[in-house]
Amino acid sequence: MLATLSRLPAMPGAVLHSDQGFQYTHKTYQERLGSLQILGSHSRKGNCLDNACAESFFSHLKTELFTDNQPLPKDETIALVEAYILFYNKERFQKRLGQLSPVEYREKLAA
Question: Is the CB of residue 53 less than 8 Å from the CB of residue 61?
Answer without folding.
Answer: no
